[in-house]
Amino acid sequence: MWINAAMLAALVVAALPVIVHLVMRGRPRQMDFPALRFVRQSHLASAGRTRLKRWLLLALRAAALALFVLVLARPIDSSGVVASYQDAPAAAVLCFDTSASMQYRHLGQSRLETAQQLAARILAGLPSGSRTAVLHLATDPATVALSDAAGQTADEIRRLGPTSRSDSVAAMLRTAGRLLDRVGEARREIYLFTDMADGAWSGLEADALATQGRVPVYVMDVSADENQNLALGPVELSSRRVSVHAPLAVTVSVSCGDRPAQRTAVLEIDGQIRRRQTVRLDQPHSVRAVTFDYQPTERGLLQGSVALLEPDPLAADNRRFFTVEVSEPASVAVVYGGTRAPQAGDAAFAVDQALAPSPLRAEGRASVAPELLAAHDLAAASLGGHEAVFLVDAAGVAPDAWRALDDFVTRGGGLVVIAGEGTAAELAAGRSSYDSPAARRLLGVRLGKVVPSPNGMPVDPPDYADAALAAFDGGAGGDLAAVTVYRRLAIQPEAGRRTVLTVGGQPLLVVGGHGQGTVAVLAAGPQADWSSLGSFRRANECVVLLESLLGHVAGQSGRQGRYDIGRELTFAFPRAMGGMDCVLTGPGLEGAVTRRIAAQTATAVLPPLEQPGNYQLRVDLPTGPRRLGLSLNVETQESVLRVRPTADVEKFFGPGLVHVAQGVEGLRHAETLVRQGRERTGQLIPILMAVMVLEVLVANRFHRDPSSGQGGAKAVS
Amino acid sequence: MPTAESYLRPEVIQQVQRLDLKARFIVEGFIAGLHDSPYHGLSVEFSEHRKYTPGDDPGLIDYNAWARTDKLYIRKYRAETNLACWLLVDQSRSMDYASGGGMTKLEYAICLAAAMGYMMTGQQDAVGLVTFDDRVRQFIQPRSSRRQLMGILAALAQPPAGAGTALADCLNQVASRIRKRSLMVLFSDLLDEDVDRTVEALHHLRFRGHDLVVFHVLDEAEAHFPMEGPLQLHDPESDESLATDAESVRAEYLARLAAFKDRLRDALEGQKADFVPVDTSMQFDKALTSYLLNRRKRY
User: Fold this and answer.
1) In this structure, is residue B59 part of a structural domain?
2) What pLDDT was estimated at residue B288?
3) What CATH fold (topology level) applies to the domain A569-632?
4) Which of A31, A199, A393, A717 could form a Cys-Cys staple with A347, CB 3.0–4.6 A?
5) Judging by beta carbons within 10 Å of its beta carbon (0-12, 13-18, 19+), is residue B260 exposed, middle or buried?
6) Domain that residue B60 falls in
7) Do A509 and A493 form a contact (C-beta atoms < 8 A)?
């Protein structure tokens, strides 16, 4: 196949050297020559060799001209093309990367709009009778089907808008591949319209997208040459729960693209700008952190955003939303063993300080108000005012105390048991109160002997999706796998309990419900010889873990963590809200959405939310309405504009049928490759050069000056 | 106004009508251009010894005399001799050939022969002439008078008979007829069919005691084969034709021609005869100088 097939007519010029040779041969110059005898002898000796050289030279010249014409005709290797039926109806799936980076505007047009125009051209160029389907990142694979209504497909393409990502490009391509696997058309094609942004291709390995059935994939690159975007990173809050008038630090990173920039970052609360800062980024691709301090003035739900005021080519990452609960400090009882008040080095002291550091407590900024209680005073203490009890390495818990704790949890309180030296000693002595039926009924676990790990064992990588680890924010809040355990109590969970953390596959943290409350048992405390939770390096993990357990067992707030745009999400409410209705409101929702909170789990499945922003959940309690909230943000990865190299993309598809094209010219070229094959002009050029060099060498040898001393004396006959 | 040296160019000499003037112009131009040349007289006859004085050419020292007398002498040659010089001019059809419209080989040979005659008579040497093609055509006995030169020039100016070549036979005939020891100067392209017979004939001349100088005269095209492209070549003597390609035969042709010349040179130099290859593009003084250098080496 040839791109410029008309040029092949010029192949007749290849005969030119032969024609010239023959024409010239027909007119020899006639002349007298008395020394003819020497010529005759020479003629006999060299005629054959000379004729061979002459025809070789003619052949080389003809070949050079023919190759030159072939180069101009641009040959195509169509051996790898599966369906080369130019006019055969096609089955084509048009896949659109609708991630945030596709909203980047360049020359008055977003990348998605460019992709739509290209797609419309491709659609118009498909033969009649072709069937097409449109996929984007939020498409439900179950609803996709090929349609022969070109107008409908064109409408779908026109209607495409930026969708928050719910799936990856890889998953979309696999869906397209599966769709085309089932069709009968010989000509099958996948078109992917993307800006090649790194985020869309992250996490892929070589051959991860190798298409089944050799379906050609054409990646239409709509990226811009220059990145002038400024982006906000994820919001980091000093605490998800703050007290009234306690300072809240909201930190966000600002990064720039290929050019230095200066922008104004603002903190907005309730739609009003509360703080403002100028951010200067002096170097390309630099990052600066910006922190806003804010003191809430009233209890309740605090929702806001950090934004960049000046516009830039990509607006999607210019605003980040956050939700904070403003409340009175949570009242917690920290129960310790023995008669001596906890001191530095004691587990109870560490827990007390982790929940409410002394400096914050002194300033009234602590979000938790812990009360230290001796275990022997527990039975007599009034626990009703507390939201949770932390039983920290408390030996000698009397049966009355267990009953009091049982009563407290049954009525909705939370209990966190943290094992330690005292607990272990009591268990080793065989007279542990933790072995009592009352304790085992409440805790739902059976505690065993100490399991030492002298060299330490890391905590197994946890599932941060567990509600008990919600404060870890999907892993962004800390790394539990970095915590080392040196000693732990053996735990045997009973029915109805779930293991949240493990060490070497053995339970470390077990959580379960009891009555209306929740109980958590941690088999290794923050003492230095039990785990690294008490160390300075792991203080963050210790604080976040205790905060997370407190939030979970006390059921103070709904699930806090990472929410994915475009996906259904299960929101965990305080246990007391089980069986009630919640009303969801927020941006992009057509009116309020009501969902029933499951009575048993106190969770409700919320509909997929497509638009970034702050959402509110209202539950009407007998005591009055209670508002909870969540924030949805564009994933930082989605707005990364770093372009994945074409070679990488080709690796994902494996060797063969992926073609990356840019612009209209690229599209034409790609279409040629799609329907005809790979251009081989580049391989002809070295051959042409070699033939020309050979021709020069042969010609020089052929016409070499005979007076240069070649040829020795020969006998004269 | 043309200088004497300008008459050494064949294309200039060609414009001169009278052969005696041609000879005069060549010789005078040649002598004027000699300057400090090796020319010390054309005669080959020894005259006397003279004591060597500083400034004399050491090449003229007679080492045999030095060995005998332990004194340095240089050899002197007689300026005026009665040496008989025969000009043997080949007038066969192959000599009547000019590739580019210039001088034919015969015209060139005649000019050279006339110049030689002019020089020889100028120093009172006797000069004779033999012209031949397939047989001897003219035979003029040598004399040293001025009129003799005019007669020779008139004979040379006559048109050739246009016959083929019988070089060996003619040379053998000449060798048989001329008994007195003489200087034989042959002007020919030597294009006889049998080169071995030609060599034998030249040896015959030398065997009879003649001093022999052979001017091998070729046309420029024959000497360098500058033609290009397809050719239809015709041999005027044998009337044969051959279609060939210049590029394809050039190297082989020149090699064979060089081998032919080498064969003649070896054969003549082995007999202490001179072989002077010239072609019609060469200036006459180069041909004469080449000859004189050869002579001087020998004597």
Assistant:
1) yes
2) 75
3) Immunoglobulin-like (2.60.40)
4) A393
5) buried
6) 46-77
7) no
Give per-residue pLDDT as tens, A185-217: 777 888 889 888 877 776 666 566 665 556 778
Q: Within this chain, do residues B60 and B150 fall inside the same structural domain, yes or no?
A: no
Number of H helices, E strands in chain B: 10, 10
- Please tell me the distance from the alpha carbon of residue B281 to that of residue B262, in angstroms, as a whole number: 21
Average pLDDT over residues B229-247: 85
Class in CATH terms, A230-326: mainly beta
Total domains in chain B come to 2
> What ipTM goes with this model?
0.76
Burial code (b: 16+ CB inside 10 Å, e: under 16) for A558-590 equals bbbbbbebbeebebbbbbbbbebebbbebeeee
A637 and A189 in contact (C-beta within 8 Å)? no
**Strand order, beta sheet including A272-281:** A241-242, A319-326, A300-308, A261-269, A272-281
Residues B121 and B255 in one domain: yes
The continuous run of DSSP H or E covering A306 comes out as strand A300-308
B284, part of any domain: yes
**CB A702 to CB B236 under 8 A?**
no
Residue B12 domain flag: yes
CA B86 to chain centre: 11
Give B11's pLDDT tier (boundaries 50, 70, 90): low
B6 three-class SS: helix
A286 in contact with chain B, both atoms CB, cutoff 8 A:
no
From B247, which residue of chain A is nearest by alpha-carbon distance? A703
Contacts of B263 in chain A (CB under 8 A): 716
**Whether A283 contacts chain B with CB within 8 A:** no
Evaluate whether the domain defined by A90-227+641-679 bears CATH number 3.40.190.170.
Answer: no
Nearest-CB residue to B256 (from A54, A710, A714): A714
Q: Phi/psi of residue A412, each to 5°? A: 115, 0
Which residues from chain A sit within 8 angstroms of residue B231, using beta carbons?
Answer: 28-31
Q: Contact A233/A635 with Cβ under 8 angstroms?
A: no
With contact defined as beta carbons under 8 Å apart, do A616 and A609 qualify? no
Distance of CA A523 to the CA centre of its chain: 34
